[in-house]
Amino acid sequence: MNTPRLSQLPFLITLNINIAMAKNAIQMGFKPEILCLEESISPFNWLGPLQYAPTYPQNLEPTSVQHQIMHHPWLDVFPFPRFRDNVIQAVAANLMDDDELCADVAEMNYEGTARPSLIVWGDPGDPSGWEASIYFLHKWGWLLQGCPELLEATNRWRECRGEKRLFWHDPQM
Question: What is the pLDDT of residues 11-29, one digit of tens each?
């Protein structure tokens, strides 16, 4: 049969998140290949004007932090401006390693163990189509300060499956 097996779920989640990030990169006017190169620098840190695609999603519009602080372009593709800013600022302050976040989000989980992940259920430029795993929230939830959209979307998806809502304490939410 052509039905996916439960054992294939980690692969499908990883494939889907990588496709979503590539689609957002294309909508933002840069080649998705730069997301895979360790030495890449965000196009928003390049000198000179950057030409945006006509279908540029509002949620992906670069912030002043993205323009001011040098960072890897893979951080530009999340449709959560405050989350992007929080990650970029945390990396710049040496509070975290974005390679570790990248590994959790975008690398294949061959062990099949539960780990931090993001899931994209719809249009990757639309925040309501994203979901964070419980493990992601436990490990990286501190990066969601001032960014209630991801938790709200996560809870909508959980409710669709009949699962309990998740709560995350953020004084700014």
Answer: 788 889 999 999 999 998 8
